[in-house]
Amino acid sequence: MRTPPRILVVDDNPSNVDILRARLATHGYEILTAADGEEALVAVREHQPDLILLDVMMPKMDGIEVCRRIRADASLPFIPIVLVTAKSDPKDVVAALEAGGDEYLTKPVDQSALVARVKSMLRIKALQDTVQEWNRTLEQRVAEQLAQLERLGRLKRFFSPQLAELILAGGAEDPLKSHRREVTVVFLDLRGFTAFAETSEPEEIMGVLREYHAEMGQVILAHEGTLERFAGDGMMVFFNDPVPVSDPAERAVKMVVAMRERLTALTAKWSKRGFELGFGAGIGQGFATIGAVGFEGRWDYGAIGTVTNVAARLCGEAKPGQILIAQRVLASVEDLVEVEPVGELQLKGLLKPMAAFNIIRLK
Rounded to two decimals, what is the model's pTM? Predict the structure, then answer.
């Protein structure tokens, strides 16, 4: 509502207009006038007053019809209407109120009654405006929260819920923008899965994968790893992105050891059903280029670099139950794990042989 409030006085009698204007002006209100119903509609749409004093008996269009048209116009905000009538028949008053009027005054208009009605209606107008502003604010917040939930849902495809929420809260830079960072990368898959898939029914394969993904997914989320991809029985997870952490190699090692422990029970269960499956993993550490990979409508979050190849090749060399790590990873976690050397491996795609170590257990 404006300050001072704007009041539209509508009456075909100039004397009545002058009287109402004089009585209201002493209270500091801004006064607009209209001489008939058609002028009133034009003034309402153009100036959107805070209150209308509307005469009922007018040529061209009476006050009741003006009231109906104002209430039917959805583009107009709520404007209190006080109908001013010389009629004392209750039926006329009821008709005016049913048309959308909020109050009424009878002519001749009493000064104190006029001021009281105006103040009362302006209080209602102020409250209504406040409620509408609250509604607009609430609608905006709901829209923002829905958009945030949508973004959160997309981010949870790539990151743990904690990291996704941190990103949306502004605790991390835009992770989908390509950037370079040192990461610890984990590749893992099931030993014997290819042979299992060739000799098993599709329903059995999907059942095993669901159990496997469910167990591994819980461990990934618990250690706040970033899942880059599922590829059948294979998974790639990395640490230190999108949010840097002080101990990426330690988190990676603890995660994979926890996975091996869970899969010990799971593979025993599968073995009873005739499925001979094992677990192997490889861990590498180094720099990678990370960001959104794909095309409009289908994006993935990927890491590209030699470190991913190292982790994948180590995973491929791992025997059932082994977790092979590179020398660089061991340097970061040597106080955490007991290892055994497996010698230098000539990994596909790498020029030089690489020393590898199998994690026996956590110290």
Answer: 0.58
